């Protein structure tokens, strides 16, 4: 999931440089959503590991 976030960030940067503001904004929004989902899943997996011990 983190790989997809990085991919969309790169797409947003390239689209922003080339002047495609709408595509850059959309890709940045998707990257932000994927990043927060990744963080939540990461924290849940950490908590699950702590509870099992």
TrEMBL record:
The chain crosses the membrane at residues 7-27, 33-51. Keywords: Cell membrane, Membrane, Transmembrane, Transmembrane helix. The keyword Transmembrane applies. Coiled coil: none annotated. InterPro entries: DUF1328. The keyword Lipoprotein does not apply. NCBIfam families: PRK13682.1-1, PRK13682.1-3, PRK13682.1-4. This is DUF1328 domain-containing protein. It comes from Psychroserpens algicola. The lineage of its organism: Bacteria, Pseudomonadati, Bacteroidota, Flavobacteriia, Flavobacteriales.
